[in-house]
Design a protein that fits this description.
The chain is mainly alpha-helical. Strands 1-2 form a two-stranded antiparallel ribbon. Helix 5 packs antiparallel against helix 6. It has 2 domains: 160 residues, no CATH class; 106 residues, no CATH class. It starts with 15 loop residues before the first helix and ends with a helix.
């Protein structure tokens, strides 16, 4: 299960998506997520699916690697589908005791499941094709206007970058601790829910200790290098828009206009 967590990981490849400016990918990801919840028809969902799989093809990231991340949120997907399926009022289709399935609930649960899957795949694709440093620089440049109202833009970007960097490190640390505990006879698989929760204590305690130790080491290293935030700092690789970035923005605007058109015309 730990190995199935792919969020925060970077997949190196020589693709058009990897070469794009991180600001374009951030704007594109946010726009795509918004479009998933604006679209309210199967035709619109089909269009968003075509766009998503076209981008996956351009990224050259293996589809199996991307889909592997869905295993960690399977229970959330299952709960969301069940909640919408059984608790949405409307025209009744099936009734088994107190369990009731309506036509509206069926359609809503299908759409919500697809939206969540596409949301996870789309947002994961951004981290697969963008290094943490690029993501930090792109986020900081996008939020730069907020500095006028005293928002600590650099600090926020740095915290998000560190958090993304720590995800794969902590997952690797968790895997090591789990294997060490299993070698000592720990059982994380058998038993009921309460027993499994109790069995995680020998895993969580050393994991938290390791996380706090790494955070303290990082803070001391930054202080030793006289790190004082982004004021007056320059970039080793300044972000500059290229022709492909401009074309990407035009494509994003076209997609947004098409989504708005579908919403207004209520097609599908």
């Amino acid at each position: 299960m730990i190995r199935d967590i792919t969020i925060g990981q970077y997949y190196p490849a020589d693709s058009l998506l990897h070469k794009l400016d991180p600001r374009v990918k951030l704007v594109g990801t946010i726009l795509y997520i918004i479009s998933l919840f604006v679209i309210d028809s199967y035709y619109g969902i089909a269009v968003s699916a075509v766009v998503l799989f076209a981008i996956i093809k351009l990224s050259k990231v293996p589809l199996k690697f991307i889909i592997r991340g869905l295993k960690t949120v399977f229970m959330l997907l299952l709960f969301t589908v069940a909640f919408n399926l059984f608790f949405t009022p409307g025209n009744e289709l099936v009734r088994l005791g107190f369990i009731r399935i309506t036509e509206e609930g069926l359609h809503l649960s299908i759409k919500m499941a697809i939206r969540l899957v596409f949301l996870i795949l789309g947002s994961s694709l951004m981290t697969f094709t963008t290094t943490p440093n690029q993501l930090t620089d792109g986020l900081e440049r996008l939020m730069h206007p907020l500095r006028k109202i005293k928002v600590p833009v650099h600090e926020i970007s740095m915290m998000m970058s560190i958090a993304l960097r720590f995800i794969p490190i902590l997952m690797e640390e968790t895997d090591k601790i789990m294997k060490a505990q299993m070698a000592r006879g720990a059982d994380f698989e058998s038993g009921g829910l309460i027993k499994r929760a109790k069995s995680l204590i020998p895993l969580l305690v050393p994991l938290f200790v390791s996380a706090f130790r790494r955070a303290n080491d990082l803070a001391m290293a930054m202080e030793a290098r006289c790190y004082q935030g982004g004021e007056g700092r320059t970039k080793m690789k300044p972000l500059k828009y290229t022709t492909r970035d401009i074309l990407s923005y035009i494509t994003l605007c076209s997609y947004a206009a098409f989504v708005i058109f579908l919403k207004m015309m209520k097609i599908g």
